[in-house]
Amino acid sequence: MAATKSKAVYNVYRALSHGLSPLLYLHLHWRKLRGLEHPLRWPERLGRPSLPRPPGPLVWFHAVSLGEGMAAIPVIKQCIQRRPDLTILMTTTTSSAFEVIEKRLPTGVIHQFAPVDTPSAMDSFLGHWKPNAIVIMESELWPNLIMGASEKGITLALLNARVSTKSFKRWSGPLLLPLVSLMLSKFSLIVPLSNMQAIHFQLLHAPPFVINFSGDLKYVVEEFDISEGEIRSIEDLKVHLALRKVWMASSIHKGEEEVILGIHKVLMQQYPDVLTIIVPRHPQHGKEIAQQLWKDGHGVALRSRHDKLVGDTNLYVVDTLGELKHLYRLTPVAVIGGSFLPNLSGHNISEAAAAGCAVLTGPYVGHFSRMVLEMQRLNPLSVLQVSGKIELEDALKKLFSDANILEARRTAAKQVYHSLSTGIVGKVWSLLDFQILQRALS
After folding, report:
1. What are the phi and psi torsion angles at 194 (to 5°)?
2. From 37, 44, 68, 374, active-site residue
3. Whether 68 is catalytic
4. Cα distance between residue 339 and residue 366, in whole Å
5. Of 7, 131, 387, 440, which is least surrounded by CB within 10 A?
6. Which of 179, 213, 247 corresponds to the end of one domain?
7. Whole-model pTM?
8. Nearest in space to 182 (alpha carbons), one of 211, 148, 206, 158
């Protein structure tokens, strides 16, 4: 009875997604006109490949955006090292993720835009690439993808698996639970982020025997080659920052710049040489911040224009992608954005910790609350979570006025990061090899 209901709900979804296909096509066209889709490669979103499929076994890794995509890369590298006979196909959804990840992927990995979850797009994609196995990152549970893969006998894995509180409530309801439980039954491996996430997946009827633990892949910070020009640029910046009080606010969302600029104004009164680095989540937002600051008469340097830090420049706005890891090495203090407004849910703090920054974050951290608590449990000095603007202001003043406290927090963050990141990729590889690849490629 339950199986019949699950199948019926999926058939309704399939029919609806088929019926909405023309509207989705128009929506993609509209996004392309707004610059939100790749101007040339957007047809890949409709399942139309831009490259031929190489012969031999192929494993498809799928991640929606930059964070999930970067978390997948260490596993992809391990796959290539351990199984050089495999072709790896990587898909992402967002244009910003595509631009950065394209440069970070190992040679030989095929990178495409992910198809939208309509029957025709997904059938076309699976029919062309014919993956032996599919590795999905985090929470990309799309019915046509999963059911289409299952019908074709393709083995499925879900890494860094998580369900937000909001999604869990929605998926647990009588309408969606039959569909979600049907999808989860098709996976041969689910690697959740935490015990609580494992419980969530079990309550959503995931088979208990496919659930295994490895650690959070977002702790794994990869070393990437950068061009000589980028190296010179970073080194030049380092020289200009050497004798100044510096802090960075990274992954800032719209509205949060008001918090950061308000604190910058207060710090300027006590430390006239302070430099505030602002790295918005989206480059266009950075350009908008810089334009407004110029209009208001502030001394601002913009990263994309290669502006120099001269004279009264006390604000540095970074409107580029993929440089955070290197920029963290230039600042002793990193405030992680996406966490100061109630509608936000935090960002990854591990890159800042790996670079040896004193790490601070706001109160709204979503599923990253587990990462914050895990780091604080190992050493309370590794991450400081503040309640809002006033507490952040006080914390920054304390860090700037006491070199011992600043150094203690920087050391704690780096040590905890190394402790939590060790061995994760190896554990993931063992699970993937045993439960997915050996089964899919036998």
Report:
1. -160, 175
2. 68
3. yes
4. 8
5. 387
6. 213
7. 0.88
8. 206
